[in-house]
């Protein structure tokens, strides 16, 4: 691995920042302490700082003459999870925890911002510290607040840690990296009856079971086997007592897909089949299908830039291109709908002991911090110095093995 000496020297400070952020988690649109900390450090480095973008987001701008512009994004929010790590810097807020590594993401981009402020590349770098990635679509809110109109960028890049990939390795490919995330709520209305006399009613629970089967047939028999889709029912609410068939059933869950065409198909077929099945049994179905996050789709040229940046640090054989897309979701996808860019996974090490994302036993791996800082520096340099073919020069910054 190749890390600049100046970045390697930052590690104690990076670890201190990361542990402090971990101990003080803040969830969606409540990241006031985190935002104030970022603004203070970024201003101290001489950067142009803007607060309150997308409610609690922070944007810092580094300008160094004419040239291209690039956006680098990190998410800053935590999750509603009670931590079980027992670490000395564990969450001090009951029921909230950095269980997805956003404390590490924030630290890496902050470190890169400070390094680039002292070693500015030619052009403009926009450092985007985004709130509310978990469930609330903070990226969309920042865009609605004029993010790219106020801070124009030619390209935009994101990064997420990935447990199960060794520290020192990266993973990326062009096309879909993460799935679209949609939610649904289906209300089935039948006719209540005595449980001993079901023929006198219309059983919505029976209808719910038939709709579940019909929906799973969409995935297994309607979606092209070369594509991917997941329909998961996660809640079923019906009835209040033992001997009464209820009037209604409420079903909730999520639908995930990797392409816009499959996403359209899922919504269309789920609506159509719910209606047909309900009508067959004399019931009524009302589906509320909500599109939450689009698929995270990397553009080809920017994927090449990101991969080359990672290979400068980790070597070619440790930048994986064979990992399949995740059916999890990521709201960086909203930014990729507006600008070309790429999203990369950085290894977080072993998952032993339940150290998976969104686990109460998870912790970001501090050994990845300097790698992430160096990656941001490299990808910004390459995005700003590429020629019209998308090929750019060797790394500008002095590296030590």
How would you briefly describe this protein structure?
The protein is of the alpha/beta class. Helices cover 34% and strands 25% of the residues.
Q: How do the strands line up in the largest sheet? A: 1-2-4-3-5-16-6-15
Structural class of the helix and strand makeup? alpha/beta
Helical amount among residues, as a percent range? 25-40%
CATH fold-level name of the largest domain? Aminopeptidase
Report the major sheet: 8 strands, mixed
- β content, as a range? 15-25%
CATH class of the largest domain, please? Alpha Beta
Q: Would you report the number of β strands?
A: 16
Low-confidence stretches: 387-391, 396-401
CA-based shape? elongated
Query: CATH homologous superfamily name of the largest domain?
Result: Zn peptidases
Architecture per CATH nomenclature, i.e. the level-2 architecture of the largest domain: 3-Layer(aba) Sandwich
The number of domains: 2
What is the rounded distance between the termini? Answer: 6 Å
Question: What attributes characterize this protein structure?
Answer:
Alpha-Beta Plaits; 401 residues; hydrolase; 34% helix; eight-stranded mixed beta sheet; 2 domains; disordered C terminus; Aminopeptidase; single chain; 11 helices; N-acetyldiaminopimelate deacetylase activity; Amidohydrolase; elongated; four-stranded antiparallel beta sheet; alpha/beta; metal ion binding
